């Protein structure tokens, strides 16, 4: 999903391969007058907003130089910090977009968002759908059609009460995951080591989201993944890994270079897998209708039988929900366990909470697990330090806006530098230190509401947020109650790289030391 977000950021200028004149970055100018969100300077109310052209400017060639020669390509989140220091809180970036990197400016922008917010050019994903006559989903549809689609998708998903109904389904998946962890550690030389946690959490997240969306199990947590499911996983990886190449190579090269063919074949694999499962459900529903039986079920049944959604759009939507929910949730869980393993005191405090909240032999319900302040704070802080989607975007299409004292015409594209924002020192003192306490409501001052918004904001914000949170709370609760998580001392220092989602630069191995607890 994040690959898609980044793709839309990079593509929307429609000219990102064309060279631009090299610009000399201007030193960020501090205005005079009343307080301006961009500069912190005072400007009087009579002052006119400045022209966007007055902003500091990064040329495309400079960007290219930084990505290729300074090595920021896989550290684009760090480029946000570098550019913030160099150009200030708002500047025109190398992709014909305006980058913002403070909580105040982000708030100003998002409060100016439109009724049908637009994230950017989605033509890369739309192309396959148009070619094959497949329907659109929440990422690819725009305008009023998007609004109507979201109204249907939000039900049974967006509200905490909606997601709570999946508590049992998720707990069943988590139970299988815990069994798998026992199996993996027992198979290791030390009897405690589990290797490549991101891969394990990927299996968990896919199984979890699929069991909600398709109301069926895929077998991702079995010792051997079923062949069809493995093909589907491979197709997702192939689609993402070829996206960037397809985006940056000209259309004429599609018959010459291998990327386009692989990209299309990957989508074929993704859609045919999803279609098979959806069609299976349709047959079951039809049988119930034919036998005058009630039609009951979870998300897919609701979409197929309770909404006006066309079958084409059900295929499109379910597929996009599935793609959005897996690498985001799995990498967030990976970072959370990494941070807990490195901070035993914090892990100890979390253990205190999970071991006293409910009796040790009981599995928490969805309602219970979402009421645990420290568990919630741990996940929130992990997402602040590693916002799995480190960059997002909007195009303000229909109106002129003034942001940070600068005037922007309709159709201006904005890039949100979430990594720089959630490491803003004024908002989060010691931003590189893991401190879940920042988020506790125990009388301390609350951080800026736009300081860390890992799920986005407003009507176009993440539809799967509550499900992702529920799944993360449930699995962390049970892991921490059962095991003390320790780092693998043979590993080098784990660094963060940007593969459009923030991932560890090496497979993360962890020790799961049994606490001797029942549940
Ligand atoms: C830790 C887990 C997750 C994170 C951090 C995350 C983050 C995000 C972010 C930042 C956006 C863009 C929001 C905006 O533009 O304002 C987004 C959109 C979206 N997410 Fe998530 N997400 C997560 C899990 C999920 C899951 C589990 C699902 C599916 C059930 C999902 C489905 C979607 C969809 C469909 C959109 C596009 C919404 C639209 O354009 O209308 N996400 N997510």
Structure description:
The chain is built from 18 helices and twelve strands. It has 519 residues and is α+β, with helices and mostly antiparallel strands. The strands form four sheets. It has a four-stranded mixed sheet. It has a three-stranded mixed sheet with strand order 1-7-6. A three-stranded antiparallel sheet has the order 4-12-9. The model is unreliable at 1-35 (pLDDT under 50). The chain has helices spanning 2-11, 60-68, 76-87, 103-111, 123-132, 143-154, 160-164, 167-187, 197-213, 227-248, 259-290, 299-306, 311-342, 344-357, 366-369, 373-385, 418-422, 465-482, and strands at residues 50-51, 90-92, 98-100, 193-194, 391-396, 401-403, 406-408, 412-417, 483-487, 496-499, 501-504, 510-514. It starts with a helix and ends in a 5-residue tail after the last strand. It has a single domain (50-514), classed as Cytochrome p450, CATH 1.10.630. It is 49% helix and 9% strand. Bound molecules: protoporphyrin IX containing FE.
* Overall tally of domains: 1
Identify the strand order in the major beta sheet.
2-3-8-5
CATH superfamily: Cytochrome P450
Distance between the termini: 34 Å
């Amino acid at each position: 999903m994040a690959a898609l977000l980044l793709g839309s950021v990079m593509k929307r200028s429609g000219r990102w391969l064309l060279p631009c004149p090299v610009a000399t970055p201007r030193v960020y100018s501090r205005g005079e007058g009343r307080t301006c969100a961009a500069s912190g300077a005072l400007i009087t109310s009579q002052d006119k907003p400045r022209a966007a052209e007055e902003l500091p400017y990064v040329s495309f060639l400079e960007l290219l130089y930084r990505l290729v020669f300074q090595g920021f390509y896989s550290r684009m989140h760090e480029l946000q910090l570098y550019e913030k220091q160099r150009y200030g809180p708002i500047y025109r970036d190398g992709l014909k977009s305006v980058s913002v990197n403070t909580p105040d400016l982000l708030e100003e922008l998002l409060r100016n968002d439109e009724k049908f917010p637009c994230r950017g050019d989605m033509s890369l994903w739309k192309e396959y759908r148009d070619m094959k006559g497949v329907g659109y989903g929440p990422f690819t549809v725009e305008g009023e059609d998007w609004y109507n689609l979201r109204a249907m998708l939000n039900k049974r998903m967006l509200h905490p009460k909606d997601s709570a109904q999946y508590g049992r389904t998720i707990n069943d998946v988590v139970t299988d995951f815990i069994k798998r962890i026992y199996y993996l550690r027992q198979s290791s030389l030390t009897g405690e080591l589990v290797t490549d946690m991101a891969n394990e959490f990927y299996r968990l997240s896919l199984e979890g989201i699929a069991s909600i969306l398709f109301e069926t199990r895929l077998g991702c947590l079995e010792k051997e993944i079923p062949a069809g499911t493995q093909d589907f996983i491979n197709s997702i990886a192939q689609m993402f890994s070829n996206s960037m190449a397809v985006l940056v190579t000209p259309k004429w090269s599609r018959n010459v270079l291998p990327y386009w063919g692989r990209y299309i074949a990957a989508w074929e694999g993704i859609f045919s897998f999803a279609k098979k499962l959806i069609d299976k459900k349709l047959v079951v529903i039809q049988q119930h209708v034919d036998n005058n039986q009630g039609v009951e079920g979870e998300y897919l049944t609701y979409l197929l039988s309770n909404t006006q959604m066309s079958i084409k759009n059900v295929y499109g939507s379910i597929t996009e929900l599935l793609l959005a929910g897996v690498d985001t949730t799995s990498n967030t869980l990976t970072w959370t366990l990494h941070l807990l393993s490195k901070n035993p005191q914090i892990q100890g405090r979390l253990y205190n909470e999970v071991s006293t909240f409910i009796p040790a032999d009981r599995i928490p319900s969805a309602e219970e697990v979402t009421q645990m302040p420290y568990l919630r704070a741990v996940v929130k802080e992990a997402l602040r330090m590693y916002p799995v989607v480190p960059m997002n975007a909007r195009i303000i299409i229909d109106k002129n806006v003034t942001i940070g004292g600068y005037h922007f015409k309709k159709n201006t594209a904005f890039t949100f530098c979430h990594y720089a924002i959630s490491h803003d020192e004024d908002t989060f003192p010691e931003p590189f230190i893991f401190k879940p306490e920042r988020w506790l409501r125990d009388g301390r001052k609350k951080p800026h509401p736009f300081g860390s918004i890992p799920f986005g904001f407003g009507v176009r914000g993440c539809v799967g947020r509550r499900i992702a949170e529920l799944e993360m709370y449930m699995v962390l609760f049970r892991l921490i109650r059962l095991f003390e998580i320790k780092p693998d001392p043979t590993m080098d220092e784990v660094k963060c790289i940007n593969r459009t989602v923030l991932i560890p630069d090496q497979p993360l191995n962890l020790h799961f030391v049994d606490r001797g607890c029942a549940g």
